[in-house]
Amino acid sequence: MNTSEFSTLDAAGVAAIRDSKTARLDMTSGRLSKDGVRVTQDSYGPEINTKDSGKISLTIAGPSGEISGETDRIRFNTTDQRSDFSEVTYFLTANTPEEYFQLIREGVDRYGISADSAEEWISSTQADPGSKSDFSITSGRSTGLDVNYDLRYDGGKDTQVIIVHIRPVS
Fold it and tell me: What DSSP character marks residue 21?
């Protein structure tokens, strides 16, 4: 039983995330330490995928704000030589272009992601909604963490994806 307000990434913690469909990660120090999530120093961390069972409500507490989203996939990047994770990645999805543009604008408002870069991309995509695009918007750092929206848009598909990369500010 986890008595902390934060999730762990050991087997019991991952099972609790899958069952509760909630995850709360502690990056208030600016990093996500392996000790803090109860994984061994040589661990690469889990990939949590709930595509078949519903989305997880993810919250990441940063040094000066929170990052949150509904996702069915969370990944943790590291090496066996690091004592922390170099990146937490999760995926946002939208079923319409309007919903997708709204997710992007929320990232601008909440995390300080470049509004100019976002609006320029949205305008060009609205002008050609059937287009395909892979585009990384200039990161925001208002939470004390580097938040990057990596857009994967294909107007010919029903679901659009934003890959969200959360990294320590170097």
Answer: T
